[in-house]
C-alpha cells in the first residue's frame, strides 16, 4: 500500500491522504491515486479542515488527537499525516474494511 508507510521507529505510520472539504459527510472514500481519499464536512478555512482530519483519524484509530500530526501539506488538499503508537499492521487492519466494503 503506497499510501501507508511504517516509520523508521516502527512505533508510528505515515499516511498520504487527499482531502475533499465541504463534503456531505465525513468518510474515507477509497483511493485517489496513491493517497487515501478523505471526505470531510468542514470547510478549508481557519484550520477547520485540518482539525477535522486530525479528529477523524484520532477517532478512527482510537488514539489521542495529540498522536496525530500533519507532517506536510497543511495548506494543501494533499497531506501526509503521522499516527504515533500505531503499527502498519494495525493501520491496515482498520483501513482495509473501509477500502474493501
- Count of helices? 2
Helical content class: 25-40%
Using only C-alpha atoms, the radius of gyration works out to 12 Å
CATH topology: Conserved Hypothetical Protein Mth637, Chain: A
On the 0 to 100 scale, the average pLDDT is 92
CATH architecture: 2-Layer Sandwich
Q: What is the CATH class?
A: Alpha Beta
Could you spell the SSE succession in H and E letters?
EEEEHEEH
Total domain count: 1
How much strand content do the residues show? 25-35%
Distance between the termini: 17 Å
CATH superfamily: YggU-like
Shape: globular
Structural class: alpha+beta
- What is the count of β-strands? 6
The biggest beta sheet reads:
6 strands, mixed
Which segments are poorly predicted (pLDDT under 50) over 5 or more consecutive residues? none
Give the topology.
Elements: E1 4-6, E2 12-20, E3 27-32, E4 35-39, H1 48-61, E5 68-72, E6 78-84, H2 88-99
Parallel strand pairs: 2-4
Antiparallel strand pairs: 1-2, 2-6, 3-4, 5-6
Q: Explain this structure to me?
A:
With 101 residues, this protein is of the alpha+beta class. The chain has one domain: 2-Layer Sandwich (Conserved Hypothetical Protein Mth637, Chain: A). It has two helices and six strands; from the N terminus they run ββββαββα. It has helices spanning 48-61, 88-99, and strands at residues 4-6, 12-20, 27-32, 35-39, 68-72, 78-84. Strands 1, 2, 3, 4, 5 and 6 form a six-stranded mixed beta sheet that branches. A hairpin with a 2-residue loop joins β3 and β4 (35-39). The radius of gyration is 12 Å and the shape is globular. The protein starts with a strand and ends with a helix.
Amino acid at each position: 500500500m503506497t499510501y501507508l508507510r511504517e516509520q523508521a521507529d516502527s512505533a508510528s505510520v505515515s499516511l498520504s491522504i487527499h482531502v475533499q472539504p465541504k463534503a456531505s459527510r465525513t468518510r474515507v472514500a477509497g483511493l485517489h491515486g496513491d493517497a487515501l481519499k478523505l471526505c470531510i464536512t468542514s470547510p478549508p478555512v481557519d484550520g477547520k479542515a485540518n482539525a477535522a482530519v486530525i479528529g477523524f483519524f484520532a477517532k478512527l484509530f482510537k488514539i489521542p488527537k495529540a498522536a496525530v500530526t500533519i507532517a506536510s501539506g497543511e495548506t494543501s488538499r494533499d497531506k501526509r499525516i503521522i499516527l504515533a503508537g500505531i503499527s502498519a499492521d494495525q493501520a491496515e487492519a482498520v483501513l482495509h474494511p473501509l477500502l474493501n466494503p
